[in-house]
Structures are given as structure tokens and as C-alpha cells.
């Protein structure tokens, strides 16, 4: 490896700071939890996770925590993703492909609307009316 210039070192430092900041959990109030059990991974959860990360970066959403979890117990409906947004019901989405992940970021995280066609589980109607 050759010597780095001062400018290259500064750029490398900024890139690493940005990566570390993504892992911090303070001041983040939105959770996106991707089921990464073997059934989820086999169904495409890694691609969905990558799409969430890229789309959250595209929208410059600094208040989102992306987490991975094991099997959520819905193997037939994998990949599954749970989304927790303040003042909205906690929601589990199913069959989340990379394209669906982008849609969830745009609709649920940015516009605060459920992506109904992919909702697997959400609170009952009477609870939704109160939110």
C-alpha cells in the first residue's frame, strides 16, 4: 500500500466517522428490525437489509436505527421486517424484497403511511383509530 496524502486521510476519516455514526443508537427514535434467521436470509433478507440501508442513506434519515434479529417465527412470510415509528402502530411487514424495502422507507418512514399491501401484523382497527 502506497502512502496516502493528507486529503486522502481526511476523506478516509470522514467515511469512517459516517460508518460509526450509523451504528450509534442515541437520538434515534425509529427502529427497522429485519428478521435475519436462516429462513429470512434464504428468502432474501440480506438484500432487503442492504436496500433499507441504501434508501435510508438516500433520504438522509439520521434518526433511524437498523437492527437485525433472528427468526420472528413467520417462516412462510419471510423476509419479515418490524417497523417502529413514534405516533404510529408497530407494524410487521412480510415478503419484503429490496423494492418493498424502498417503498417502506418512502411511505412509512418518510410519509408516515402504512404500506398496507405488505402488512403482516398490526394492531386492531380500534387501536389504529386512536393513533
Topology, element by element:
Blueprint: H1 6-23, E1 30-35, H2 38-43, H3 45-58, E2 64-69, E3 81-84, E4 91-93, H4 98-110, E5 119-121, H5 125-130
Parallel strand pairs: 1-2
Antiparallel strand pairs: 1-3, 3-4, 4-5
Order of helices and strands: HEHHEEEHEH
- Strand composition percent: 15-25%
Cα Rg: 17 Å
Model regions low in confidence, pLDDT < 50 over at least 5 residues: none
E-strand count: 5
CATH topology: Glutaredoxin
CATH architecture: 3-Layer(aba) Sandwich
Mean pLDDT: 88
- What top-tier CATH class fits best? Alpha Beta
Shape: globular
Portion in helices = 40-55%
Report strand order across the widest sheet: 2-1-3-4-5
**Which structural class best describes the helix and strand composition?**
alpha+beta
How many structurally independent domains?
1
Largest sheet: 5 strands, mixed
The CATH homologous superfamily is called: Glutaredoxin
Q: Helical stretch count?
A: 5
Terminal CA distance: 56 Å
Q: Could you explain the architecture of this structure?
A:
The chain has helices at 6-23, 38-43, 45-58, 98-110, 125-130; strands at 30-35, 64-69, 81-84, 91-93, 119-121. The protein is α+β, with helices and mostly antiparallel strands and 131 residues long. Helix 3 (45-58) packs across helix 4. The chain is globular and about 50 Å long. The N and C termini lie far apart (56 Å).
Amino acid at each position: 500500500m502506497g502512502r496516502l496524502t493528507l486529503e486522502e486521510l481526511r476523506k478516509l476519516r470522514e467515511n469512517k466517522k459516517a460508518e460509526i455514526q450509523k451504528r450509534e443508537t442515541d437520538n434515534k427514535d425509529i427502529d427497522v428490525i429485519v428478521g435475519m434467521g436462516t429462513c429470512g436470509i434464504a428468502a432474501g433478507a440480506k438484500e432487503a437489509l442492504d436496500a433499507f440501508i441504501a434508501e435510508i442513506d438516500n433520504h438522509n434519515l439520521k434518526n433511524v436505527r437498523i437492527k437485525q434479529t433472528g427468526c420472528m417465527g413467520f417462516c412462510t412470510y419471510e423476509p419479515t421486517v418490524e417497523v417502529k415509528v413514534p405516533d404510529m402502530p408497530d407494524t410487521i411487514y412480510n415478503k419484503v424484497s429490496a423494492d418493498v424495502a424502498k417503498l417502506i422507507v418512502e411511505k412509512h418512514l418518510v410519509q408516515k403511511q402504512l404500506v398496507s399491501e405488505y402488512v403482516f401484523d398490526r394492531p386492531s382497527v380500534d387501536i389504529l383509530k386512536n393513533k
